[in-house]
Amino acid sequence: MEDDFEVAEKAREYSCSPYSHFAVGAALRAKNGKVYMGCNIENNGIQAICAERTAFAKALSEGEREFESITILGAPAGEKAINECVPCGYCRQFMNEYVDDKFKIYTRQGEEIKAYAMKDLLPHSFKF
User: Fewer CB within 10 Å, N- or C-terminus of the chain?
Assistant: First the structure.
């Protein structure tokens, strides 16, 4: 688990956040153990992509379909990620399409690791 926090922190270094100056990194762990890194990518319009969806897009585009967890860290660029950073509503619904009930979402508040199930963060999801 701690390795996933290190990967998420590394992903923050690649953040393209010239507008919000808020760097987010994610480490998406597949059930086979492979980890996909993602960062937030902003542009001058409304089509920015969050770190969570970047990681999922990378994994899905490489054929990955079974996921165990995602670890997310975010903070103003240049600062250590110590405040809890949970997925936005769009990311919650997006991720929900590709995960099962055992999937976990990890973040950190200070040094305390917090874990959530998708149903905790998206209790009334739209899913077929």
Answer: C
